[in-house]
Amino acid sequence: MKQAVITELSTKELYERLETEEMQLHKLKLHHAISPIENPNRIKEYRKTIARLKTEISSRELAEKKSQK
Length: 69
Prior knowledge:
Elements: H1 3-8, H2 11-34, H3 41-68
Helix pairs in contact: 2-3
């Protein structure tokens, strides 16, 4: 998922997307442990997407706290 797409999502959508991405990563790791998956780079992509989502969420929370002060 590109950063431009992530910034367009609402905060609620970010949390929902984060939850689904983490579940997908967990399932993918489980499948990879049982039998090697075709493209193991997908695990890396999921981790990076999760990091992007968490970064966007935290930056929005910080911006909200700054605006309240």
